[in-house]
């Protein structure tokens, strides 16, 4: 392990890392290919680590899929040079760390409100892995939009010498965002799960009419679909992950989280509201 880490440091200006919790799928492969393209002949490292710090006491840590042999094949085929797959004792040799990185108020909203402590655990392990791999660039998927925003904030606030690069969400032909948790869905639940991406696409169509129209269109789609236990549907300013105002202009994220059966899924779409777009007042009953 030490020799590999030193090798990564030597190649840092041209190196890249993709951090995962394993159960790799085409979405992860797209990250690895993007890293390969960016790094050229430099080192591309994929980390595989199911991080206990970012799972709550009633979440799915124990049943989270662990498929290292298959992950190695996916990583190699996508262009990775090295897979770093430590166990918990290697990452946390003295037990759960007493000093952790906090996401602050930005990490307490939306996903953070439903999963207390999740982002502190995520940022702590990302910081450790950035120290260990010393990449010039780190690649993350846009599907975990709040995670991406917090990692960018951490890197900027704490002066990490790494570029954070976002890669678009990979979807099934019917629109469902790829996720390692999709394997837990029954056929009927998978059909119900399409309401998440459907709501986002409906909201995107309403962008010319302004933020309130986007919220209304997405909410109406979810209401018609039914069968979901909705945690939130929100139109978010990605700079600080606060709710976008009715007159908002610029980049935004339309995000949704819901349980389908016993499986919790998240999805989002990046949107852009041009200056001068209508700012319609919300209609009665249309609040998100």
Report on this model:
With 288 residues, the protein is an alpha/beta fold. The protein has helices at 2-10, 26-39, 68-78, 88-91, 111-114, 118-133, 145-157, 187-205, 211-225; strands spanning 16-20, 44-48, 82-84, 137-141, 163-167, 229-237, 242-243, 250-260, 263-273. Strands 3-2-1-4-5 form a five-stranded parallel beta sheet, with helices on both faces. Strands 7-6-8-9 form a four-stranded antiparallel beta sheet, with helices on one face. It is globular and about 50 Å long. The relative contact order is 0.13.
| Number of discrete helical segments | 9
Give the end-to-end Cα distance, rounded to a whole number of Å.
48 Å
Compressed to H and E, one letter per element, the order equals: HEHEHEHHHEHEHHEEEE
Largest sheet: 5 strands, parallel
Give short descriptive properties of this protein:
five-stranded parallel beta sheet, alpha/beta, 2 domains, 288 residues, disordered N terminus, globular, Pantoate--beta-alanine Ligase, Chain: A,domain 2, disordered C terminus, Rossmann fold, four-stranded antiparallel beta sheet
Topology:
Blueprint (H helix, E strand, L loop, with lengths): L1 H9 L5 E5 L5 H14 L4 E5 L19 H11 L3 E3 L3 H4 L19 H4 L3 H16 L3 E5 L3 H13 L5 E5 L19 H19 L5 H15 L3 E9 L4 E2 L6 E11 L2 E11 L15
Parallel strand pairs: 1-2, 1-4, 2-3, 4-5
Antiparallel strand pairs: 6-7, 6-8, 8-9
């Amino acid at each position: 392990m030490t020799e590999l880490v030193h090798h990564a440091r030597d190649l840092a200006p041209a190196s890249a890392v993709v951090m995962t919790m394993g159960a790799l799928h085409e979405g992860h492969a797209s990250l690895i290919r993007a890293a390969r393209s960016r790094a050229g002949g430099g080192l591309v490292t994929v980390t595989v680590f199911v991080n206990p710090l970012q799972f709550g006491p009633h979440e799915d840590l124990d049943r989270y899929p662990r498929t290292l042999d298959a992950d190695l094949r996916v990583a190699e085929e996508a262009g990775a040079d090295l897979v770093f797959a430590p166990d918990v004792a290697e990452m946390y040799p003295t037990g759960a760390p007493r000093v952790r990185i906090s996401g602050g108020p930005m990490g307490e909203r939306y996903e953070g409100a439903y999963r207390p402590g999740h982002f502190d655990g995520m940022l702590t392990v990302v910081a450790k892995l950035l120290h260990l791999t010393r990449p010039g660039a780190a690649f993350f998927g846009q599907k975990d939009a709040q995670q991406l925003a917090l990692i960018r904030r951490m890197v900027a606030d704490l002066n990490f010498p790494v570029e954070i690069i976002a890669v678009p969400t990979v979807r099934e032909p019917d629109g469902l965002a790829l996720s390692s948790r999709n394997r837990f869905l029954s056929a009927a639940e998978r059909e119900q799960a399409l309401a998440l991406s459907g709501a986002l696409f409906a909201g995107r169509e309403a962008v010319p009419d302004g933020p309130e129209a986007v919220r209304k269109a997405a909410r109406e789609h979810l209401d018609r679909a039914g069968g979901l236990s909705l945690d939130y549907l929100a139109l978010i300013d990605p700079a600080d992950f606060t709710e976008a105002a009715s007159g908002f202009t610029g980049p935004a994220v339309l995000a949704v989280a819901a349980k389908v059966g016993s499986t919790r899924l998240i999805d989002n779409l990046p949107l852009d509201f041009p200056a001068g777009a209508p700012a319609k007042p919300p209609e009665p009953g249309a609040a998100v």
